[in-house]
Amino acid sequence: MDSVGQRRMSELHRGRRDQLEVSPNLWAGVGLVRGGAGTALVGDPDTVAARMREYIALGIDSFILSGYPHLEEAYRFAELVLPRLPLADGTPGPPTASAHRGPFGEMVGNVIVPAGPRAAAS
Question: Which InterPro entries does this entry report, sorted A to Z (predicted)?
């Protein structure tokens, strides 16, 4: 709680709960509900994806994402936001989450799509 990151986060809102939105859709209140520094992108899937595209346009190419509860939020992000983000080569993402499905029904969150089922070894 005494880290430089935590101090900077506290300076953003100065402890005022009415000042927690420090930028459009960027909520600095995460440190009020759990320890450590952090912010949250908040909003509907289109809004969160739009903010992430803005960060991507600024040159950010990696995000550390979490949510509460973690597993459920990972699925929600994969199904609702990920399809709205550009692919690694900058082309627009597919219009539906089904385009991110691998051959085994799993969600694919990167540019490497697994090959289809392999023939059983004899």
Answer: Luciferase-like_sf (IPR036661), SsuD_RutA_monooxygenase (IPR050172)
Q: Are residues 34 and 61 in the same domain?
A: no
Q: For the segment 92-109, what is each residue's pLDDT rounded down to a tens digit?
A: 766 554 555 566 556 566
pLDDT tens-place string over residues 71-94? 888 888 888 898 888 877 777 766
Residues 34 and 49 in one domain: no
Nearest to 98 by CA among 84, 83, 113: 83
Q: Are both 85 and 58 inside the same structural domain?
A: yes
Secondary-structure breakdown of the chain: helix, strand, coil percentages, each rounded to the nearest 5: 40, 5, 55
Length of the chain: 122
Q: For residue 21, what are the contacts with CB-CB under 8 A and spacing of at least 6?
A: 27, 28, 42
Whole-number CA gyration radius for the chain: 18
Residue 5 sits in the same domain as residue 57: no
Residue 57 lies in domain: 44-109
